[in-house]
Structure formats: structure tokens, C-alpha cells
Amino acid sequence: MRGIWAVYRKELYVLFASPIFYVVAFIFLVLNGYFFYTALAYYSMVSFQAAQNPFMAHQMNLMDMVVRPVLMDLAVVLLLTAPLLTMRTYAEERRSGTMELLFTLPVTDKGVLAAKFAGVLTTLFLLLLGTLPSMALLGFLADPNWKVMLCAYAGLFLMGAAFLSLGMFSSALTRNQIVAAVISFGALLLFWVIGWLSSIMGPTSVRLAEYLSIIRHFDNFSKGVLDSRDLLYYGIFISFFLFLTVRQIESYRWRG
To answer: How far out from the chain centre does Cα 197 lie?
Structure first.
């Protein structure tokens, strides 16, 4: 356990010492502010019109018009930025030759993986934490459904964790960080758009494509629906790519 904690602290130190984290955080939070402002401005404009139309007023929903669109937009931003957070996790260790040093530590490959994954999860948590002031402002101005919002944030965190697990596997495949980021982004994009193929598939293939679609499972969370099938999907997704990562590292140890 002490070895895992040491690797975790080292991961956080490297992440926070790198300009990549600050660039990613800056872009993420600026885009969050932009999405929040535009969604709130649109809601305000429609609310003014609805004040003169009682039927239209019944159609107004703060969660559907502000919170859900903002979190869906942040999911797209995570799709683009998650590979940047994970590209160095193993690729840099292999390029700099410190992978062999990791093998000498009194910690297993699974322990190193757990520490590295916990490190990038911490950065994801901090990024999402940075968006809470805008939601707090929304709570000051209106009366959002906090239970639905909490469920949506839990879904966004799980989906981000799935992104990071695949990104770490991509990083374990190569010594080049840029190549790792490109592989990760391409694979994540495939999981994102696979649901779009449903219009040209048969009934059985449609169900499979819809289940594999990573964004479809987040859709339920964003509506405040906590479905065990969505939890199971993200759990399997994360476990599968972490399993592949540790197998890749073990093969690297054997090959020397």
C-alpha cells in the first residue's frame, strides 16, 4: 500500500508540474463558462417570451434547457481533452527509461496501474469541481433539481473515467505521447459515433451498437435516470481497458 501511495503522489506531482494540465484545465473551464452563459442567456430570452404565453411557460424546464445541454457539451470537451491527460502515463515512462525503475519498486503492476489511474481520476475530479461555481450561481438565480444534477455529474464522472481507462491503455501501447493521444482519441470517437450506425444495421446489430455507444449511457444519467445497465456498462468498460493495460505492461516486462 505504501508503494501505491508513493506512485500516486509522484503521478500527481508530475501532472501538476506539467503545463499540459493547466492548459487543459484552462480550456475546459473557459468552454464551460461559454456553454453555461449561452445556455442561461437562451433560457432567459425564452423565459421572457413565456411570461407572455401561459402555454409556453409550462414547457419551460431549467434542467433540460440549461444543465443538461451544458453537461452534454462538457462530455464532448472531455472526449477531446482526456487523451491529453493520459498520453504520458506510460508512454513517457517507456521513452525516458523509468519504466524499469517502476519494476524495481515493491509494488505490483496492478498497484502501479491503480496509482496512475487514481492520479488521472483526481485531475478529472478537479476539472468537474471547477464547474460547480456556475451551477451554484444557477442555484442562486433559480431552483434547479439538485438530485438530477448530482446524477448527471455522477454520469459525467463515470464517462470521463471510461475515457481515461482507454487513454491509459493507448499510452501503454507506445513510447510516443502524441501517438498515444491520437490512438486514444480515435478509439473514443469510435465508441462515441458507433450508435449513429443504427440506421443502416439490422435489429440485432442495432441493439449491440446502441449498447456499445458510450454517450447513450450518459444520456440516462443526464436525465436523472440511474439505471443499473448504465453503471454496469461503465464498470465493464473501465475494468476491460485497465485489464488490457496491465497485460500490456506485463508483456513489456517479459520482453525486457
So the answer is: 23
- Whole-number Å distance between alpha carbons of 228 and 235: 10
d(CA 8, CA 27): 25
Contacts of 32 (CB under 8 A, 6+ apart): 70, 74, 77, 130, 131, 134
Q: For 26-59, give the DSSP string.
A: HHHHHHHHHHHHHHHHHHHHHHHHHTT-HHHHHT
pLDDT in tens, 13-24: 888 888 888 999
pLDDT tens per residue, range 179-236: 999 999 999 999 888 877 766 666 667 777 778 888 889 888 988 888 899 999 999 9
Cα dist from 52 to 40, 44, 58, 60, 143, whole Å: 19, 13, 12, 13, 21
Phi then psi dihedrals of residue 178, to 5 deg: -65, -45
Return the SS3 of 60.
coil
d(CA 144, CA 166) in angstroms, rounded, equals 33
What distance in Å separates the CA atoms of residue 62 and residue 107, rounded to the nearest whole number? 49
pTM: 0.91
DSSP-assigned letter for residue 199: G
Phi-psi region of 61 (alpha: psi -120 to 50; beta: other; left: phi over 0): beta
Whole-number Cα distances in Å, 66 to 9, 69, 84, 156 = 37, 6, 28, 16
| C-beta of residue 88 within 8 angstroms of C-beta of residue 120 | no
Question: Under DSSP, is residue 18 helix (H, G, I), strand (E, B) or coil?
Answer: coil
Reduced to 3 states (helix: H, G, I; strand: E, B; else coil), residue 112 is: helix
The answer for residues whose C-beta is within 8 angstroms of residue 201's C-beta and 6 or more apart is 209
